Amino acid sequence: MIGPAPAGEQLCGAIGEPEMMEPALEGTGKEGKKASSRKRTLAEPPAKGLLQPVKLSRAELYKEPTNEELNHLRETEILFHSSLLRLQVEELLKEVRLSEKKKDRIDAFLREVNQRVVRVPSVPETELTDQAWLPAGVRVPLHQVPYAVKGCFRFLPPAQVTVVGSYLLGTCIRPDINVDVALTMPREILQDKDGLNQRYFRKRALYLAHLAHHLAQDPLFGSVCFSYTNGCHLKPSLLLRPRGKDERLVTVRLHPCPPPDFFRPCRLLPTKNNVRSAWYRGQSPAGDGSPEPPTPHYNTWVLQDTALESHLQLLSTMLGSAQGLKDGVALLKVWLRQRELDKGQGGFTGFLVSMLVVFLVSTHKIHTTMSGYQVLRSVLQFLATTDLTVNGISLCLSSDPSLPALADFHQAFSVVFLDSSGRLNLCADVTASTYHQVQYEARLSMTLLDSRADDGFQLLLMTPKPMIRAFDHVLHLHPLSRLQAACHRLKLWPELQDNGGDYVSAALGPLTTLLEQGLGTRLKLLAHSRPPVPEWGISQDPPKHKDSGSLTLGLLLRPEGLTSVLELGPEADQPEAAKFRQFWGFRSELRRFQDGAIREAVVWEAASMSQKRLIPHQVVTHLLALHTDIPETCVHYVGGPLDALIQGLKQASSTKGRMVMSRGGELVMVPNVEAILEDFAVLGEGLVQTVEARSERWTV
To answer: Nrap protein domain spans which residues (predicted)?
Structure first.
């Protein structure tokens, strides 16, 4: 801050006048003063738009700070640890927010979309299996297996077009702006039993196909294609992008949905069945009276479409006027995106963290007056200390005895977070492995924030952390078609029926449980990643499950016990010995130990330390081949990439790392310092080439 002028000196010009700088070599004495004053009098006013120095009086320079300024300084000291962190957070929020100019252009595009959607012509009623009315240039964005299904379909324009999601709430973040639009299908299209045997999803897909054919012919749209909603292959959506310079401005996603009160909620509880085994397997119904297996995921996907507007109303009520809550949601979305936790099916999405903020507000753990940074810390603290795989949470305040209990949801789902209706699990697609990864990252982030490190902001919100950086060992299962055989081997018929034939989702839970049991104390965290299914054109068939690339598993290992070559089992006369032999197969054998005990045990082949560090590779390949029929050739394991480099340096050092010198008439072996330094230089170059060690800034 500029202080007052010293005594005896006067400020040049009054407040608001331009400050004139006199040339150093201008005339001297009275003539110089007259010339300078004449030049100052004749000087032209400054050009408009140029910032001029602000001159403050002595009272203004030293006036006491206001209450608002004191609160700002106190909040910075207590909450942000430093003014730099506060500035960084504020600048990040400016970067990811959507500007008002772009909002106006997006709003104009949405109005055009609305006008065109409601003008799509109707189609007369036909059987669901009679799809001859579809034009040749469009395909149904759904795998219709089995094809035979009861019901009728006709197209009518949507009864209501509603913008839902983060765009209206002001919590969407750049660079990818997606606007979700719900198209409420008229009741005349739907029938009472459409919740059975994928009838509703077939009608939903046909509705989108007819829309796609007509909208693709409109010159307003530069791109019209299909995509899966959160990776769910039973719920495609139609993506619309504008033509011309605004092609990358926004992506509008159309989601057909039923009227909110069309389906009876009691039919969609997690204990109910809505996919009949006889229809799905193509067999005659069993006459032994055995109950149908429940279809909790299928029921949840139907319920999600009925709750789009109610979720928007809840979020709007809680976040509407609280800018701090909106900023916190935006920061949490950045945090998830940098760690790739929100990608693919079963990801921990921005919608989930928004609903989590609503839950913490309703339980008074977050206040609406909090800043975005406070909201970020509160949510991370909650995630780090709360295990939703054990103790679920609910937004429902009703005491209706007809509502299912949390225990019913825990039996059907790995992670439980109920919405305000008490019937819909928001985390139905989130696996236990994904949630544990979110918990682990939240704990690391809280430790980083509490450490007050200078680069904490950079590491927390600006540094990408893909799976290859976050885990010690990474393995890829490819091709994914091998998981179909794994489902047959593990007899996962109910899971396939519930997931509509998605054998990757059906096998994922049992697969991770198998590896966690086999790796035991060696394993600290196991996570999985499924790449998002790419978009496809309206004239193409939807991608198959095997076309999703590969399933990636990350292993975070504990140093304790990692290099142990022995898996010690129970004693031979114990009842657990049979289970141990069944789990490890031919690897299990009886061994006598020094204490005289005879136990089941598994011994892994590992001579050197580098081979011992790769024992998890042997465990994984053995268990997958034994229990899931996935051969070793389909497991692409990445672990210990530096072992070969280090081993080569050791061999080189043994020959040139020492030299013979004469000391006192005797020949002695001494280290060759130059050769050792050369080895270190080669090792450093190899480390840089082998491990991606640079920190990339997240571009917006």
So the answer is: 179-318, 325-463, 469-628
Mean pLDDT, residues 92-118 taken together: 93
Mean pLDDT of the chain: 85
Measure the CA–CA gap between 634 and 475, rounded to whole angstroms: 10
- ∠ CA 269-270-276, nearest 5°, is 90
H helices within 159-225, ranges in order?
166-169, 199-215
Is residue 142's pLDDT more than 90? Answer: yes
SS3 readout for 437-472: HHHHHHHHHHHHHHHCCCCHHHHHHHCCCCHHHHCC
CA dist 438 → 115, 172, 205, 339, 449 (Å): 42, 21, 33, 9, 16
- CA distance readout (Å), 560 to 292, 520, 584: 46, 11, 22
pTM to 2 decimal places: 0.82
Helix, strand or coil for residue 635?
strand
Pick the closest to residue 297 from 508, 553, 581 (CA basis): 508
In whole angstroms, give the CA distance from residue 13 to residue 94. 38
Residues, the chain, total?
Answer: 700
Rounded to 5°, angle at Cα 480 from 479 and 484: 125
Q: Are 509 and 443 in contact (CB under 8 A)?
A: no
CB atoms within 10 A of CB 60: 9
Residue ranges of E strands in 156-289 = 160-164, 178-184, 221-229, 232-242, 251-257
Q: Identify the CA nearest to 620 among candidates 437, 468, 475.
A: 475
Confidence (pLDDT) at 80? 67
Higher per-residue pLDDT: 384 or 38: 384
pLDDT for the residue 3:
44
CA neighbor of 617 nearest in space, from 529, 468, 692, 515? 515
Which residues in 639-695 belong to E strands, given as ranges?
658-663, 666-671
**In sequence order, what are the beta bridge partners of 182?**
162, 255
CB 129 within 8 A of CB 148: yes
CA distances for 411 relative to 125, 159, 389, 683, angstroms? 41, 37, 10, 52
For residue 524 the two structure tokens come to 């600290």
Find where tokens 């997240």 sit.
698
Beta bridge partners of 645: none
**Structure token digits, residue 108:** 């104009």
| Cα–Cα distance for residue pair 449/506, rounded to 1 Å | 38
Cα separation, 116 vs 211, whole angstroms: 10
What are the structure tokens assigned to 370, written together? 């909090």
**Tens digit of each residue's pLDDT (9 = 90 or more) over 116-125:** 999 999 999 9
How many C-beta atoms surround the C-beta of residue 229 within 10 A? 17
Helices (H), strands (E): how many in the chain?
25, 19
Other Cβ atoms within 10 Å of 597 Cβ, number: 11
DSSP assignment of 98-156, as one string?
PPHHHHHHHHHHHHHHHHHHTTPPPEEEEETT--TTS-TT---SS--SS-----EEEE-
CB 478 within 8 A of CB 400: no
Q: Give the integer Cα–Cα distance in Å for 374 and 377.
A: 5
Which residues neighbour 316 within 8 Å (Cβ) at sequence distance 6 or greater? 168, 169
Q: DSSP secondary structure string, 568-633?
A: EEEETTSTHHHHHHHHHGGG-EEEE-TTS-EEEEEE----SHHHHHTHHHHHHHHHHHHHH---GG
Strands 536-537 and 221-229: antiparallel
